[in-house]
Amino acid sequence: MSPVSHGTSERRDGDHWLLHIAPHVAHAYETVWQALTTPEGLHGWLAEAETLERHLGGAVTLHWPDPDTRASGQVTAWDVERVAEYTFPVHGRMRFHLEPLGTDSTLIRFTAELHGDGSYALDRLAGWHDHFLLLEDYLEGHPVYWPTWTPSRRTALRTEYAAQLQPH
Fold this sequence. Notes:
CATH architecture: 2-Layer Sandwich
Number of domains: 1
CATH superfamily: START domain
Structural class: alpha+beta
Number of helices: 4
Radius of gyration: 15 Å
Mean pLDDT: 93
Order of helices and strands: EEEHHEEEEEEHH
Strand content: 35-45%
């Protein structure tokens, strides 16, 4: 079983979706904050932060190697060590809300807001789940080595989500 609980998707009007994942990681929120809000941290599990102005209204450009994609957007929420939100015209909004649980554990309440059909939302849900597994690896001292990364786990997660979300 995956150490990251399966996320959920919620369809809003038409092609508007909200995705939710709430991973609980065994690391202090200060450590998790750095992983979510610094170029070094983001590169270890999500994407290269070519630009990251760490304040409300700041510019952000992320480069994903899977596939080779760049997205430029804006920091749309910033509450130091609590909330970071990045919004991109193409990829939508991604919000990380941290809740410390004691001194060495953190709950991340993650929400992605995006537009696309159900298949696209399913792809993104599996993708975010995979990224949170990569985050756990990064926090344990094992950042992803992007030149050898493959989408095999993401593909398997997508199959799991498709089966879970199908009517029975």
